[in-house]
Amino acid sequence: MPLAIISGTHWGDEGKGKIVDYISQKANIVIRAQGGSNAGHTVVVEGKKYVFHLIPSGILHSGIKCILGDGMVIDPADLLQEIQFLRDNGWEESLQRLLISEKAHLVMPYHRLFDQLQETFRQSSRIGTTGRGIGPAYEDKVARWGIRTVDLLNLDTFKEKLQLVLNYKNIILEKVFQKPPLSFKSIYEQFEKYSEQLKPYIVNTLPIIHDALASHQNLIVEGAQGTMLDLDHGTYPYVTSSHPIAAGSLLGASLGPLSHIQSVGICKAYTSRVGEGPFPTECLDHIGETLRERGGEYGSTTGRPRRCGWLDGVVLKYAARINALTSLVITKLDVLGGFSKIQFCTHYRMGNRISWELPNHSFDWNTAQPVYQELEGWESDISKIQFYNDLPRATRDYIEFIEDFIEIPVAILSVGQDRSSTIVRKEIF
What we know:
The structure is a single chain. This protein has twelve helices and 19 strands. 32% of the residues lie in helices and 22% in strands. The chain is globular and about 65 Å long. The protein folds into two domains: 314 residues, Adenylosuccinate Synthetase, Chain A, domain 3, CATH 3.90.170; 97 residues, Adenylosuccinate Synthetase, subunit A, domain 2, CATH 1.10.300.10. The longest helix has 21 residues. Strand 3 and strand 4 form a beta hairpin. With 429 residues, it is an alpha/beta fold. The strands form four sheets. Strands 1, 2, 5, 6, 7, 8, 9, 10, 14, 18 and 19 form an eleven-stranded mixed β-sheet that branches. Keywords: Cytoplasm, GTP-binding, Ligase, Magnesium, Metal-binding, Nucleotide-binding, Purine biosynthesis.
């Protein structure tokens, strides 16, 4: 079946945007499964940088339908900004290929407010959210307070739902946080305008997706964030509010447990994460700073500097299991050029114990110390190399060591930002 699911193997920011854009050259539909504008991906085409937070990466290829899926939470203001960005940059045609699932939920103004208030309330135990209202939007979805994009198609329904939920939210704002109530009139008028602007894109995407599968078209489902930020399987509570793993992508794209799926993991040549939470291989010295500067490790959504360290093989092997990975893509391989030695974490030491498995208890995460396998580095710049066998022997040894460690083939290597800076060992489609 021509279906590929793209998942991040660590804490997000693995370079999924570029890889989805690259693979999309042979796709018919790209579906974003979950998350909201708390995620961001950068695509560089012929030296020009495009940053998106909601619209799938494949939008920069003609003829490809791009779907904002059921599992997403969408802030209309952010989405309309991206739509205008496409118009301003000569991609007006792409908007005819943009579709929004009727089942996707809306991020409302009170969600952003509650996100900030909740983080302040946590004080030293803050999660480190983006403040974009994503967690509270998913919270409302689960609590059945959520408002969906389909509600924008009938403003009478939207009005009823907004009035009910705002009555509830205002009580919390006033009684718990001692904040003034939000104005129903102001929010309604704002979303009345959004309704007119977004109506052309909001459709029932289920038959579109399943008709495409039935006719053997190539589909890509991209998840936002990464495995270690999954609500169930990540470093809880320092996680996102949805399911970035492959199974979550199926759910967020109106798909069931289909067979013959290609589950593609995206892994950086080193590891990074944004926000609070455990990170055993984090380098707090010049190595971490070098990786950050060479890799441009600053959040595309918030601009926050990312924490950086050596590649964590324990996390990678865990992600391979959780996502049932069939192949791996390694990105930002060029960033490691210039290191004489490269470290790869094979297991953890926790007190007197050795563990090859991820801990679940916060105490164990706090005591986990990485145990490294040292490999030879390479001094040369590999960003212009087009073929695998032309890479330095040490670079190939590093790739093949990773393959042997997780017992999964490395299909694609990214050696630079641009779409063309890609080495393919095995085609996805």
